[in-house]
Design a protein that fits this description.
This protein is an alpha/beta fold. It contains 12 helices and 6 strands. It has 2 domains: about 10-165, P-loop containing nucleotide triphosphate hydrolases (Rossmann fold); about 195-260, Conserved Hypothetical Protein Ylqf, Chain: A, domain 2.
């Protein structure tokens, strides 16, 4: 299953970021702590290059603390990157973020020159909530739906620090199928882009493998089914998600399961680890090479047919 969603204003946002690249001193990339890899736009890495970058793992109250720490250690292996764990309930991060911005732009920190910090990220990672928290006032519109911010805006944090906010930016082609599923589970992609039972099955399979005790506690189960479909069937019967004749309504239980994950009713859960990411990137590279080989074979076949037609004419 391929999940693709790339509204026009995201293309515009990417173009605008490239245009102001030379003005930017520090990138602030907001990630969803539940999916630090899948919520990281690979195009942003291309744009920012080796410029100083603060990666903020947002929504840490929804994520597995041990896995958040593992991700911070992994991401900070890159020399130009520092990380910060954050969630909307924290009100004490403003000074820490401002201090980190100044540290990352040390050549301007003690001058009258303005430090331009560009805040960037995919839809629904909580950029607007973060901005409102660190400014202490409601500046950015927030919402539970992806793609709330539509236009670039500039916000003065301090006399010599200006924050540049941008619309959420997805990339046009999500090569890693697992990332597509995880973005859908956490609400990073609008529901019109995917089939809910498919997403719920993926989430159920993951929870069975990684957080079985969370499932037992949430649904009062002593033993867990073996498969994702069986799990959804059991939950459907316990929660009364039934059709005529007593059959489980898969659409209804799928919505319930995904919404309970998003509402943090399973407890803190992180859907990926650095080890999983490295393995999936290998798989993506294999698929990319296979796709390239098929393309070359088609081009060679096309050239051969053209040559035959030319000889026969």
């Amino acid at each position: 299953m391929a999940i693709q969603w790339y509204p026009g204003h995201m293309h515009k946002a990417q173009k605008e970021v490239r245009e102001i690249f030379n003005q930017v001193d520090v990138f602030i990339e907001v990630l969803d702590a539940r999916i630090p890899f899948s919520s990281e736009n690979p195009l942003i890495a291309q744009i920012r290059q080796d410029k100083p970058t603060i990666k903020i793992l947002n929504k840490t109250d929804l994520a597995d603390p041990a896995r958040t720490q593992a991700w911070q250690a992994f991401l900070e292996q890159e020399k130009s990157v520092k990380t910060l764990a954050f969630n909307a309930q924290q009100q004490d991060k403003r000074e820490q973020i401002i201090s980190l911005i100044k540290k990352m732009a040390a050549d301007k920190a003690d001058t009258v020159k303005t430090i331009h910090a560009l805040i960037i990220g995919i839809p629904n990672v909580g950029k607007s909530t973060l901005i409102n928290n660190i400014t202490g006032r409601t500046i950015a519109k927030t919402g539970n739906e992806p793609a709330v911010t539509k236009n670039q805006q500039r916000i003065k944090l301090e006399e010599n620090i200006t924050l540049i906010d941008t619309p959420g930016m997805l990339w046009p082609n999500i090569e890693n199928e697992h990332s597509g599923y995880r973005l859908a589970i956490t609400g990073g992609i609008k529901e019109t882009a995917f089939e809910l039972p498919d997403i719920a099955s993926y989430a159920a399979e993951f929870m069975l493998a990684h957080y079985p005790e969370n499932l037992k506690q949430r649904y009062g189960l002593e033993e867990l089914p073996v498969s994702d479909i069986e799990l959804l069937e059991v939950i459907g019967r316990k929660r009364g998600c039934l059709r005529a004749g007593g059959r489980v309504d898969i659409d209804k239980v799928s919505r319930l399961f995904v919404m309970e994950y998003r509402d943090n009713l399973f407890g803190p859960v992180t859907l990926e680890t650095p080890e999983m990411m490295l393995e999936e990137l290998k798989q993506v590279e294999v698929l990319r090479l296979q796709k390239e080989e098929k393309k070359k074979a088609r081009e060679a076949d096309k050239a051969a047919r053209k040559a035959r037609r030319k000889r026969n004419s």
